[in-house]
Design goal:
heterodimer; A: 345 residues; Aminopeptidase; Elongation Factor Tu (Ef-tu), domain 3; 2 domains; 17 strands; B: Aminopeptidase; eight-stranded mixed β-sheet; six-stranded antiparallel β-sheet; 9 helices; 25% strand
Amino acid sequence: MENIKQRLRALCEIPSVSGHESSYFDEILKVLTKEEKGSLDEIRTDSFGNLILVKKSNKENAPALMLDAHLDIIGFMVTEICDGGFLKIISIGGLDTRVLPATHVYVNGKEKIFGVITSTPPHLRKGDSQVPSVEDLMVDTGYSKEKLQELVSVGDTISFSPMFTPLLNNYVSGIGLDDKACVCAILDFITKVDKNSLEYDVYGVLSAQEETGKWGPARVAFNLDPDVAIITDVNFAKQKGVSENESIECGKGPSVDISSLCNRKLTKNIIRLFKENNLDHQIICEPGRTGTNNDAVSVSGQGIRTAILSVPLKSMHTPSEVVKLDDIKTLSKAFELIATSKEAL
Amino acid sequence: MKELLNINKDLCLTFGPSGYEDLVSAKIKDLITPYALENSELYFDKVGNLYYHIPKENAPSLMINAHMDEVGFMATSINSDGSISFGTVGGFDTIILPSKKVICENGLKGVILSKPVHLLSRSQRKKPIDVDDLVIDIGAESKEEAEKLISLGDYFAFDLPYVEFGEGQICSKALDDRLGCAIMVKLIMDIKEQKIDIPYDLYFAFTCREEVGYSSCFGAAERIKPNYAIVIESKAVSDLYGVEEEKHVAQLGKGGVISFADCGAILDRDLVKHIISLCEKGNVKYQMNRSVSGGNDSSNIQRSAGGAKVALISAPSRYIHSSSNVIHKTDMESIYKALYGVLTDKNPLK
């Protein structure tokens, strides 16, 4: 578990804000040891910004299994450099402006610059709404405008300060656990699994721009045309204010999502496989759209058979997302189970 | 000045919401003890205020004051899922609470959870989160487990790093009012090291429970019955881009904020003018408070015993009462210099 924790910590330190993933490929690959990289058949990228790790089966004409987790995280972009060292910003991805004031951030300029998201004092807030919109918020960098212009350009990204914090019972809190938790599971699985045991050629896709429109992995799926794609993302965990029917529980393993946009036979197969092997898992129903990469991948090219596995996560899209490491480990085991089973797909 | 900043960092990172000042006061006492003069007194009173007294006969008494407590949280119920509901200790702008990291008095770390934005209706997204809807998650998975670790009434404080950034800015929790405590500690060290002969019967009072309104400073002032008092505080300012200058209150980097009045007290005109004239003489940066806002222990001291002449000098502070107060280190230094000027004055107040 310590292995997973350290890898996840390292992944969370990388500010791969949507649209800027490819700037961080080197850093992502540094999370792997030389031996781990050496165990792969290929590491490739595409023009859209997806990073693809390939490990092939020794068997001839093995079907292609694509595993997807998105590499991008929510964040901000600089729109204006103002007097007094303040930056005006816009959001990248679905941010909750109720949780932003007084949050620590880093501006990813020429160098990493610390900043605080401003909090307008109550008596100066406009109108009835006490919740600021992103346009009302700024980043306070402490620099003069002149100095700031040397360090930062309009269009630079801003990300939450990582502040990775271990809690009790293997829970950790951090930023971008959506979807670094699943990225971590893919890396854990694909570097460890023995080629000889693989029934499929595995394509681990660390995809781009999920948070801004779920664009990335559909490009990979188009080029690759895999036999099956398994989309992995986080899903809402039970917590105060979140009802049972819209959530799964931390510590009970990944959920298999049952949705009209997933392949029904594949989903049933995976559930059966998990049951037969006593792998912790849970079921969540997403009758229509799933809000994950699944929806775009399923209609990519001439259509792809897809299934979704999700890791439960608390306080999604805040600077303090919470996940249980055991669920990441179980997801990695789930990949192994699927990839080494002839009947899985 | 590096020493002042180091003391400040050390004190800011110490745990101490209102009513739980013991760790802060112990640290301050440890810092002061090696510098205590032979004829001085260093002692606690029965409610936890810490005093350092350098007696001088036939001299007016001067009390210098800062409060040791910070805003924080208290566990009010332990829920079936192992999460902890909490109440706030001290005045908060509750909008800054969700998703902040916290630490319990027993060292356990936690985060303040809020419901994911995806699951909110359009109208809910426009409403600030009610404290009752927030919980602290320490990773406990059941009520039984959490109850073994957390008791009702346990304190929590913000748990964020102390960051020096920009061109001299500091971002931390608890700068309100550990920066005042740090300035006082530094002055106490100087008095010993530089053998300063103080023209006053001088008290340094490190007091408790300012943030909850019923401050222990009142008792401290009743005990000392000072002729004069100077309170060191932090002042909420709004010198943000886009805010009209007349609404700034004061500005970071332009020196300590000297007030003639705030919502709590009309400060003593003669004492205030005396401090200003010493700043002018000593070339010490200061700025005048441009609003009547906020309140602090100055009113408690002023109205204690037979009454006292009180002045207030504050560090301008952005995002006050949050996990991330922002001050400028030069303002701390200016306040330190202003007080140094008062204590080394050759023509003291009578």
